[in-house]
Amino acid sequence: MASIGSAPVYMRPGVPSGSGTARDSELDRVRGLARVLDRYFVDPLMGLVIPGVGDVIGSLLGMYVVVIAARRKVSPVIIARMLMNLTADAVIGIVPLVGDIFDIGFKAHLRNVDLLESRMSHGGRATAKDWAVVVGAALAFIAAMVLIVYGVIRLFRAVF
User: Fold this and answer.
1) Any idea of the CA torsion for 2, 80, 90, 44, to the nearest 10 degrees?
2) Is residue 50 one of the residues assigned to a domain?
3) How many CA atoms lie within 13 A of 155 on its CB side?
4) 102 and 31 belong to one structural domain
5) 98 with 132, same domain?
6) How many domains, in total, are found in the chain?
7) Are residues 132 and 104 in the same domain?
8) pLDDT tens digit string along 108-151?
9) Which range of residues forms the domain containing residue 147?
């Protein structure tokens, strides 16, 4: 970390001098991990072979991208989107077979790498679409909680 003024600023790892290219080794590692998990179907296969546990392991491996995004001071809204992608991947992936088919198509890890790369090119700031996705997810969560409470109340009234 280096400081400019009073706010700490992330400095990406140094590039060997004279290499002729400015490669970002962290981003290369993140891309490689996402490629192995999603393109080579390691994530869905883990979920198929070890139901539930494989999906949790895949999500924990996917947290590496989120950690890199946080270290690079990416907007919390982008990090929330990344976490929502991992959550969807894990929660739907837990359903035997259907979840594994979903994992093959959804590719949460590649989505998160795309989010990181595209937002880093804009200084890590969130777009209107990012805000819309997060607000929409929050509203969906609130609606689900209201429906659950309503269902529990109806159940108690029917039983008692």
Assistant:
1) -60
2) yes
3) 6
4) yes
5) no
6) 2
7) no
8) 999 999 999 999 888 888 989 999 999 999 999 999 999 999 99
9) 127-160
Give a three-class secondary structure readout of the chain: CEEECCEEECCCCCCCCCCCCCCCHHHHHHHHHHHHHHHCCHHHHHHHHCCCHHHHHHHHHHHHHHHHHHHCCCCHHHHHHHHHHHHHHHHHHCCCCHHHHHHHHHCHHHHHHHHHHHHHCCCCCCCHHHHHHHHHHHHHHHHHHHHHHHHHHHHHHHHC
- Which residue from 30, 106, 119, 114 is spatially nearest to 77, judged by alpha carbons? 119
In a domain? residue 19: no
Alpha-carbon distance of 49 to 55, in angstroms, equals 10
Express each pLDDT in 62-106 by its tens digit. 999 999 999 999 999 999 999 999 999 999 998 989 999 999 999
Same domain? 68 vs 102: yes
Task: Give domain status of residue 144, yes or no.
Answer: yes
d(Cα 50, Cα 100) in Å, to the nearest integer?
11
- Taking residue 63's Cβ as centre, other Cβ atoms within 10 Å add up to 14
Structure-token pair, residue 42: 């390691």
**pTM (2 decimals)?**
0.78
